[in-house]
Amino acid sequence: MKHDLARESWDDKELDSPTQKRWQLEQLVAALRISREETHSIRRDGEARRAPSREALQAILDGLTEALFPRHYGQFDLDGENIDYFVGNRLSIALDGLCEQVHRAALFIGDELTAGFRRDDAIDLTRRFASQLPDVRGLIISDLRAAFVGDPAARNFPEILIGYPGMTAIIHHRLAHILHQLDARLIARLIAEIAHTRTGIDIHPGASIGSGFFIDHGTGVVIGETAIIGDNVRIYQAVTLGARHFPTDDDGHLIKGDARHPIVDDDVVIYAGATILGRITIGRGSTIGGNVWVTQDVPPNSIVTQATARNKPG
């Protein structure tokens, strides 16, 4: 009964007050036009362009993952006679879609110097991306093995491959990093954000990550654009590899792309909640304890705990 009364009251309002008047749409639309075109304009002049599609990129990522691991993410009943046809089909669809999104992203940015601005350039870029997929699969297998070795709870490879958020994040990152290197940076960033949404792990596509990388649990991990991570590195949830400060030029503008994130050498373990900031180096074989704050170089084979971090001079 209460619901009916509320609905009747709302219907009365609709009859008494037209939509335009109720929301003052004419004034609101005019104010937004002024903001959009004059006071707060951010769009380049020229023909309007379609933005790349996040939904299309999600489908492309799924297709590429199925092509890389057809029996795990694709169809369980594939055999020696039909598996190559399945992989070829998934690759064809995914790469066609990726080429379109690379081209669309470059047009949307509106700079002719952007990679993929011309259709032929987008095709060439996508071809170069595709040529690296076999090597990327090898890197992902090294990540898979590292997870199996590094996690006593892991019982088998399929469990890790389809069930661990860290594996999903690193698969996405390996693909996004290639695109970032090929200067398809908007697409790479969107792929990174898809991974972030799916896993809670935020890895900038510019970050360089060696083989055998394992993120255990993973929620809240942040890895910045210019971070360099060596081979056989293991990190846990809520770890940040971030910037300590942001250098500016003589006019006070931020310097884009400046090396400002940590270098983590081979065979390092970083436990949950550690925050490592600035262009510092964590030496090979070191262990960084949980919840520590590190802003200075760490020598090789060191163990950094909250106690040692507090007592260290400077």
From TrEMBL:
SUPFAM superfamilies: Trimeric LpxA-like enzymes. Its EC number is 2.3.1.30. It comes from the Bacteria. Gene3D superfamilies: Hexapeptide repeat proteins, serine acetyltransferase, domain 1. It catalyses: L-serine + acetyl-CoA = O-acetyl-L-serine + CoA. GO terms for biological process: amino acid biosynthetic process. Keywords: Acyltransferase, Amino-acid biosynthesis, Transferase. One of its GO terms (molecular function) is serine O-acetyltransferase activity. Belongs to the transferase hexapeptide repeat family. PANTHER family: SERINE ACETYLTRANSFERASE (PTHR42811). This is serine O-acetyltransferase. It comes from Bradyrhizobium daqingense.
